[in-house]
Amino acid sequence: MGSGAMTNSIVDISKADVIVIFGCDPTESHSIIGSEIMKAKEKGALLLVVDPRRTRLAKMADVHLQLRVGTNIALLNGLVNTIFENGWENKKFLEERCEHADRVRKHVKDYPLDKVADITGVPMDQLKQFARIYSKARAAFLAYGMGVTQFVSGTNNVLALSNLVLSCGHVGRPGTGMNPLRGQNNVQGACDMGCLPGDLPGYQSPNDPNVRAKFERAWGTPVADQPGITSMNMNELALEGKFNALMIFGEDPVVTDPDQNRVARALRSMDCLVVVEMVMTETAKLADVILPAASFAEKGGTFTNCERRVQRVNQAVNPPGECMGEWQMLQALAKRFGTPGFDWETHEDVFNEITEVTPNYSQMSYQRLDEANGLQWPCTSHHPDGNSVLHKRSFPLGKARLMPVHYLPPEENPDDDYPFYLTTIRLHFHYGCGSMTRKSPILERESPEGLLFMNPRDGANQGLFNFAPVGVRSRRGYLETRVQFTDQVPPGLVSLPYHFSDTPSNQLTNDAQDPTTGMPELKACAVRVEPLARDMRPRPIQILRNENYEPAVEEAGADYVRI
Amino acid sequence: MYVYELERLEHLRNWLTLKNEVLRPIADESGNGHWGVVKHGDVVPFDMDLRPDMSPKGLFFAERETVMKFDGTLFRETLPEQKPQVLFGLKACDLTAIAYQDNHFKDDPYYQARRKNTLLIGIDCQEACENGFCASVDAGPHVDTDIADLVVTPMPHMADDEHGWWVICASPEGQAAIAGLGLAPADPGWENWRDMARRHAEATFPKDTHIINGIQRINGRAVPDEAWERFAHQCISCSGCSMMCPTCSCYATRDVPEAEGVIARERIWDSCLMVGFQKEASGANPAAEAGKRVYRYWYHKFSDDVAARAGRYMCVGCGRCEATCPGMIGVHSIMEKIANA
Question: Does the structure's ipTM exceed the value 0.90?
């Protein structure tokens, strides 16, 4: 349909009469949005949740489709098929705003309800109920998250989702939309600024000679005409010896990227690794140089949230010691390299340069952001006050295209040796790799260590008790933790939070990737759960590694001291 | 009790800055109120309607503080040092809460070290604030003269006209603080005017049947466990209510290793809504279910048993929990739900 951002805004949740939460857990990972959903539900909106886990919102939902992990496309095709078969589609919208509806209509005939129920494990009447409620809604807001994208079929999942949204015409109006929830506070901003391998700032393509010419004029230097490589690709090339230096800003890929043993090997094989960080992370321990970063409260600039709202960040305190903002660090480096064009005096100068080269940001300025409490792009001369709803009259492509997509199971599936699906989750007490939140004593007490969440029935079959020590093994790694019984996960599925560097879920995860985006399949892999002696203490990964349990990773630098 | 006439509140505020550090509600860029220092000579007008988002409890009961150090042989208490300070413009709800905390922490040297050097200047509210229901729980809108050092109350006036103030000396310390300011004694009759203003203010509160009904149902054990469990689905244990609540007083402790062989014991604000609050070392947890924790929280705020011990309900009706709760189970929402449970 267009660019990667919410088509609507957070406020649209309160304008919808049906809210669909697809493959995400906003109360845990986007608490403010979760709160808006609860409010809307209390005011009478119908809540539909699609999630293999029985999340908090799923417990409150009017309909919860508890599908098997990785069967999104089968489910969505089945829903679209039901909608077409019953004539519930929005014919006017399909006629005027979309193309290829017939192709999809024909294609999804392969997904009759009984077959879909077989694949997904969701009863047929629930599927039909969902299809009816969604298609007959006046305005239906759909939000999705990593449970859609973090699969090898991530891109196709999103296409299947957009088929559903388009066939019912739930886009381009208040209270509707197809709304991805971003993983971090400024992921949207980073993508907007071209931190994607194939984009220049503002999602402008380096393949377009006019775009290249514009940037070359603005920056006074040639710009790349080839797309870059994804972070997963960098690891591969590094292991092949073709990628030799990397500078990482505020990220801990050793904890947060899949198959961490491989990530660590890749980083270690580089000639030069620079990490810009506030705290000593697992990645920073591998660095040749660590540069001290300023925190959000110690620098100025803007963050862009998932509803495309660019918001000012105001410096509250001075950064300690030699810490500085990232733009200052890049500027200092450019100066040493003798590269011109980095002579901003303030972070406002940086923003002004952004508005010059990014059409979506062109009518923004610090003053206007302050006055309007943030502006939502596209903020252009046609829409100087920004846009809360995208695609009101047309799509960037003109007409939106429905795309037939096929269901494919995840790359790795449970078998006799590894009988459980493992999915990764977030807990609201912790953020990202935990390098910040795990310093807070109360948060650390609330969830001090990674737990393996398991259905009580599976637990009983394995002869486990609640909080029993267990080993978890996949084809890529091994870790030890404790098991917690919960009805959140169905039998056959276990889940592990990804915040904990001593029980890192990414020891186990698969780095199989979506062929289009390079997004790794973090949400599904096969594992085996091995009971440990009842009185044994699960050993943190750092100790396990030293015991040469798995691909040996020799430690760089100091011992691991928990602060 | 001595009562004086005052032309402008800013005069009194400025006078107090001569010998004390004076804190008053100020609005930051986003319009949120918090307690900030006012310097001598500062002419910013006093904003009567601004109530800080956070209650003032953190000024006495610190969010995080070191309480002692152990160097292997000796335990050393680490008492805070507090210069004389004034809290200027406290509303009745917050003052009621401070009085409650004074009693709760009466043997707590850390709390008392900060508290004993603090002068409390209360101000009478003229109308109900958003979410406020102090009148329903006997905590406002006017300041009880037992719980402040000075109370300022506006003289009768028309709408937004400039008006004077009466300054009521509610304690010997309050009396001493204004000695030398040269204020004229108030005309008799101020008390009638103040009483009338209180009745006017009380008339501005919206209906509170859900609060009264909810208190009765909580004390009558009339809310089934399943209902609490249902409400608790919406509690994400963010602890926002406890942090904002002017009477929540629970804390956790932990030992932080410092230099070789030295540990510092810290205490940190805690919340009974968190699952780890009551978890025992064995892993057993008497309040493992979220419903039990939510019930306990509200039971403590409105229980007649607690009131019998503390002399009043813990809740002072400030409504901050309603404003902050992301799960729609702040005080008004939960009492509505209880009333309909």
Answer: no
